[in-house]
Design brief:
The structure is a homodimer. By secondary structure, chain A is an alpha/beta fold. Chain A has twelve helices and twelve strands. Helices cover about 40% and strands about 15% of the residues of chain A. Chain B binds a DNA duplex through helix 2 and helix 4. Chains A, B: Pfam families: LacI, Peripla_BP_3.
DNA sequence: CTGTTAGCGCGTTCAA
DNA sequence: TTGAACGCGCTAACAG
C-alpha cells in the first residue's frame, strides 16, 4: 500500500487561484463576502487540486472540532446500540461526528474515557447509562464543554439528562399484573446496587405490590444480570420453590424471554399459567412466541433528544429544562392476559 | 452551565516548573532524555495545574490523531454492533479512538462519510459491510491513510479485507439439509443485487443443491431483506405454494426465526416437519425455541482482526496477507435434525 | 470584497 | 540533558 505524501493546503489553492488564503478560507467556510467570480475560480482550483480542508488545523484555530464524545456501557447491547443510532442520526443532522467508547459500566474506565475525550477537544459529551458519582460530577464540572446524560440521571440534578421515569414505569408494569388478579407476582430484577436501572425498577415493583391487595414478599424476588440466562435460571428457581407464582415482572426483555422459556420447559404455559411482562421493548420481544408484553422504552428517542439537547448547549441556546423525562408506554402483547390498560399518568 | 475558560497549556507548565516547553513536551511524551529530578518536578506541576494535553494541537504538529474512522451500515443491527465491539476493544488496546458513522449501505453516503473522516485526519479507515465499487476504490486509493474492509471484500483484491467465505459457508449450511435427506430444500435469501451478502449466499445454496441428488428449483427461492418479518412472509408463501418443502436455509438468523414462526403458525413443527437453518449466530438464535441451528460467523473477531490489521498498516509493519478469511462453523442446535456434521473444509 | 498578520498548542530539529 | 525557534494548516481580527 504505497501512499502519496503531498499534502495540499489552503495556501496552495490560494497561490494557484491568485488570491490570498483568507479568501480561500472564506469560500470554504461559505462566507458570503466573496465576489461570485472569485468564488467560482477558487472552487475550480479546489476541485482541480483535490484540496481537502484539514479539520485538525481548523479545530486548533477555531477551538471547535465538531465532534462529540459518547461514553456508552456496551455497544453490543441492543438497548444501547439503538440509543446510539438515535445519537448518531441527530449528530449527523447537525454536522457533528461521534467518538464512541465502551465503558462496560466500570467507573474507573468511565472517568478515564471522559478524560481522553476531553483531551481530544470534543465540543460536547454524551454520557450513557452509568451511575453518576461524585467523581463524575467533579470531572464534568471541571469540563469546559457541555455534558448531557442519557438513560441515566443525576439525582443531585446538577447535570442535564434525558431518560424515563423508571420507578413509575416499573410500577405500571407491575400494576398490569396486579389487575390481572394474581395472588403472587414475582420479580426478576437486576442488581439492587445498580442505582440506574436495577434499584429503581425494584422500587417500582415494590410500590405497586404494596398498593395492591397482596403484600410484598421477599421470597418472590430474584436478581439477575439482565441477560437471558439469568432470567431463565431465576424463573426456574421461582417455579420450583414458589408454586403459587402465576405472574412475573422481569426488568429486561432478555430476562423476560428467559423466564418464558423456563416456564415452558417446566410444562406450563404463558400466559395461561404464568403471565410475563418485560422491560425495554427491544426487537427480541416481538421475535419470540408468545410475543412479549413489555414496557416500551423510547431508546432511539432518548439518544436523539439527548444529542439535540447537547447541540443546544454547545450553541449556547436557551434550554427550558435540562431534566427531561420521555414518555414510555405499555406494549401489551401475548405474554400477559390483560389486553387493555388505562394510562394513569 | 457556566464554564471556565482558562486553557492551560504546555507553556504554563513550563513557566511554572522553570523549564522550557520542550522539556515538558518530553516528559509528557515519555521521552527518556530528561533528568529524573526535572521529570518529577514537571509531573508535579502538571498535576497541580491540572494540565491536560491538547490532542488537536498535537495532531496538527505530529500529523497523527490516534483516531480511526469506522463506516458501518447500521449500528443498531446486532451483527454490526457486535463487530464494532471487536473493533473498539482492539482500538482501545492500541490507544486509538474510533469515530463511528452509519452509512445504511448507501453508496453516496459511504463516500461522503469517508470524505468527512479523511478531513478529520483519521490515521486509518475501517469500512464495513458495503459493496466496493470503483468510486470506493478511487477514493480509497487516493487516501493517504490505510483502509481495511471488514465483513465485505474487494473482488479485485486491491484492498485488504477480513471476512469469511460466504459461498462456502452457505454451501455447507445447505449441505447439512441435503444430508438430512430432504426432497425439497427452500431458500430464503437477501437481495441478489447485494453482492456482499445476498448473492454469495445464494450461490452457495445453489451449488450445494446442484451437487445433491435433487435439482435446483427456482420455485423454492424467496428473497427478503434479512429482517424477521420478511422471513416470516417468505416462509408462509413457501408453505402455501410448495407443500413439499421440508427444509429451508435462511441467510440471516432473523429471517430464520421468522420462518420458524411461520411454520408453527401454520400448525407444523420445527424440526419435525420442517428443518430450518440460519446464518450469523446472533444472540437471538439461542433465545428462541427451538434453538436455531445456524452458521456461526465470528462477528467480534472479524472486527477485532480487521482493527488489528489496520494497526499494522498504520505502523508500517509487515503484513503477510491483506486478504484474511476467518473460520466460521456450523452451530447445530434444535431447528435441524442432524446433530453431527463433519467439517469438510 | 480582499489581503496581512497573528496566533491556536504542541512536536521537533538543531545548538548549546 | 535542555532550550530556542520554526512550522503544522487554518481561523479571525484588522486594515484597506
Amino acid at each position: 500500500m504505497v501512499k502519496k505524501k503531498e499534502t495540499i493546503t489552503i495556501y496552495d489553492v490560494a497561490r494557484e487561484a491568485g488570491v490570498s488564503m483568507a479568501t480561500v478560507s472564506r469560500v470554504v467556510n461559505g462566507n458570503p463576502n466573496v465576489k461570485p467570480v472569485t468564488r467560482k475560480k477558487v472552487l475550480d482550483v479546489i476541485r482541480q487540486l483535490g484540496y481537502r480542508p484539514n479539520a485538525v488545523a481548523r479545530g486548533l484555530a477555531s477551538k471547535k472540532t465538531t465532534t462529540v464524545g459518547v461514553v456508552i456501557p456496551d455497544i453490543s447491547n441492543t438497548f444501547y446500540a439503538e440509543l446510539t443510532r438515535g445519537i448518531e442520526d441527530i449528530a449527523t443532522m447537525y454536522h457533528y461526528n461521534i467518538i464512541l467508547s465502551n465503558s462496560d459500566m466500570k467507573k474507573e474506565k468511565e472517568i478515564q474515557l471522559v478524560e481522553a475525550l476531553l483531551e481530544k477537544q470534543v465540543d460536547g459529551l454524551l454520557f450513557l447509562g452509568g451511575e453518576i458519582t461524585d467523581s463524575h460530577r467533579e470531572i464534568f464540572a471541571a469540563s469546559t464543554v457541555p455534558v448531557v446524560l442519557a438513560a441515566t440521571r443525576d439525582e443531585r440534578r446538577e447535570l442535564p439528562y434525558v431518560t424515563i421515569d423508571q420507578i413509575q414505569a416499573a410500577k405500571e408494569a407491575t400494576t398490569i399484573l396486579v389487575h390481572e388478579g394474581h395472588e403472587q407476582i414475582a420479580f426478576i430484577g437486576g442488581p439492587l446496587t445498580d442505582s440506574v436501572n436495577g434499584y429503581p425498577r425494584y422500587v417500582g415493583y415494590k410500590e405497586a405490590i404494596e398498593e395492591s391487595e397482596t403484600s410484598f414478599d421477599e421470597a418472590l424476588v430474584r436478581l439477575g444480570d439482565y441477560r437471558y440466562r439469568s432470567g431463565y435460571e431465576a424463573m426456574k428457581s421461582l417455579l420450583e420453590s414458589q408454586p403459587g407464582v402465576s405472574a412475573v415482572f422481569a426488568v429486561s426483555d432478555e430476562m423476560a424471554v428467559g423466564a418464558i422459556h423456563a416456564v415452558q420447559d417446566l410444562g406450563k404455559r404463558v400466559p395461561e399459567d404464568v403471565s410475563v411482562i418485560g422491560f425495554e421493548n427491544i426487537p427480541l420481544s416481538s421475535q419470540v412466541r408468545p410475543l412479549l408484553s413489555t414496557v416500551s422504552v423510547p431508546m432511539y428517542d432518548i439518544g436523539a433528544v439527548a444529542m439535540r439537547l447537547l447541540t443546544k448547549y454547545m450553541n449556547d441556546e436557551q434550554v427550558e429544562s435540562g431534566q427531561v423525562y420521555l414518555q414510555y408506554s405499555m406494549e401489551l402483547r401475548n405474554s400477559t392476559k390483560l389486553k387493555e390498560w388505562e394510562d394513569e399518568r
